[in-house]
Amino acid sequence: MFSKQPDKFTMAFEVNPEANVRYKFYALLYTEAFSRLGIEFNYTICPLKRCSYMSNLGQVDGEPQRIYNYHESYPNLIRVEEPIMRTQVAIYSLSELKRYDSWDSLSGLLERIDYVRGAKNTQLQLEHRVNGSQLSTVTTTYQGIMKLKLRRTDLFIDLKSRVDALLSTEKLKGVDIKQVGILDEHNSYPFINKKHTSLAPKLADVLFQLKSEGVYDRLKYQASLKSEY
After folding, report:
1. pLDDT tens, 38-94?
2. Which class is 8-85+188-222 in CATH?
3. 41 forms bridges with which residues in the sheet?
């Protein structure tokens, strides 16, 4: 039952492509990739944690980018073996007095730290180093930025691309938060529900072809995304 190729493929996006250049790029890239496979591509927008649940349960077909070992937490998902993007995890504060350069640099901190619910690797890294009473989650990047602005937390951790995109919008113009370090940098991969197992190597091949042909870079330029991979 896992071998039939679908006519349509829907990914769970946690950011609206109309408001984020990285996700605009993902929409363009996956539309092209699935078109080459004869499949119509769609996306639905939902909070990050719900993206995980929906893709793992098969309510959607996959997610555009996750960390390499994401399937260890969501076993109904399989990794497509072609990296989609180079991802940086950044930390933000209202003050630049302290800098952080790794997960280990957070060990023993007394500050309150927020991160986006559903960011599984961030959760695991923090739980090993920071007292649970200092940790809390937000549903969206916007909420994390606003909590930091209002001093309801001391530090906020999220993907650099998501925070930078929001800080460049008119809505958050003048919000003076500081990036005080890059905690991690890694490749991100597409993940698809295991009911589409046979599709994974085909999608990996097409993504590789798009890079080789220069289409990947052209679509990044079209989305106004700076080169990160």
Report:
1. 999 999 999 999 999 999 999 999 999 999 999 999 999 999 999 999 999 999 999
2. alpha beta
3. 9
Identify the bridge partners of residue 63 per DSSP, sorted by sequence position: 191
CATH 3.40.190.10 matches 87-185: yes
Numbers of helices and strands, H then E, in the chain:
7, 9
Rg of the chain over CA atoms, in angstroms? Answer: 18
User: Which band of pLDDT confidence, cut at 50, 70 and 90, is reported for residue 226?
Assistant: low
| 229 band by pLDDT with thresholds 50, 70 and 90 | very low
Residue whose tokens read 């989650």: 137
pTM of structure: 0.83
Whole-angstrom Cα distance, residue 8 to residue 17? 19
Domain spans of the chain, in order of start: 8-85+188-222, 87-185
Q: Under 8 Å CB-to-CB from 2, ≥6 apart: which residues?
A: 194, 195, 196, 197, 198
DSSP letter for each residue of the chain: ---SPPSEEEEEESS-GGG-HHHHHHHHHHHHHHHHTT-EEEEEE--HHHHHHHHHHTSSSEEEEEETTGGGTSTTEEE-SS--EEEEEEEEES--S----SGGGGTT--S-EEEETT-HHHHHHHHTTS-GGGEEEESSHHHHHHHHHTTS-SEEEEEHHHHHHHHTSGGGTT---EEEEEEEEEEEEEEEEGGGTTHHHHHHHHHHHHHHTTHHHHHHHHTTPPP--
